[in-house]
Amino acid sequence: MGYDIIGDVHGQGGKMKALLKKLGYRIKDGAYRHPEGRQALFLGDLIDRGPEQVEVINIVRNMIEAGSGRTIMGNHEWNALGCGMRDPEGSDYLRPRIEAKMKEHKEFLRQVGMDSPLHMELVDWFKTLPPVLDLGSIRLCHAWWNPDSIDVIKAAQDRNGKLGDAFLIGSYRKRTAPWQAIEYVTKGYEVSLPGGDTFLDHNEVPRKEIRVRWWDDSATSYRKAALVPEGERSRIPDIPMPKEVKLGASSNVPTFVGHYWLTGTPGVQNATTAVLDYGAGINGPLVAYRWDGEILLNNDKLIWVKG
Length: 307
Ligand SMILES: [Mn+2]
Known about the structure:
Layout: E1 3-6, H1 13-22, E2 26-28, E3 31-33, E4 39-42, H2 53-66, E5 69-71, H3 75-84, H4 99-102, H5 106-112, H6 117-126, E6 132-134, E7 139-141, H7 147-156, H8 165-170, H9 177-187, E8 190-192, E9 199-200, E10 206-207, E11 209-212, H10 222-225, E12 226-227, E13 255-257, E14 273-275, E15 286-291, E16 302-305
The protein binds manganese (II) ion (MN).
């Protein structure tokens, strides 16, 4: 079967419909379907930021029901789940509703109505999303294919990829195995800069931790490994990262992730890794990889619609 893997949509219904159309999907019996039976695989982060978050979810849910689409869980769905689900062992939510944690989620809550029946129904749906989708010949997770964490999550997923409540609740308890696995797989690896150095992220917020290019074996220094706005790169120290920070090499199975908000002309990261997030949630293009069974990924298979 052919798969079209699609990066973080973040509530951008217009770009999503334009991309599905460009990929050849058409609405039939209430859902986007491809005439050749292809399937669209979404990399998570369907929500937050954009103006049509409920519509985006409805399109994906209709495709799942029709068998023409699937999605995994991104860090934004995991955050949303924690914001909507109470901790059975306390009086608070699993992810406390404090200002700092709600900032990026406010627009979603405004669109669905906080604590409305729709909100609660969507929280229940987020619970069903698999953080890992391993189809044998291709692999998907939102941020980092870390083999140990992937194993922890796979062991907890049922045959539909769903995690049980116990694992999900555990994933909000810091420094437990479920928490570590979800952190790595949906948010990636973040490394503190030495000497308390900082840089400015896309929102011009000073940060002490860098996201790193885990798929790149040659990225051994902080400066080379850092995923930061290009103008900030010179602020990152050009010294080797400590050995314990050395990341696993990318695998030999084509692996697709979103999350990293790349810029510039879309391109694969190497023959077996493609990052498909180019900031579609704000001004960037929404990017897909059209996969037809190839073992080595290449740039000709990327298709996108502009921001
Ligand atoms: Mn994202």
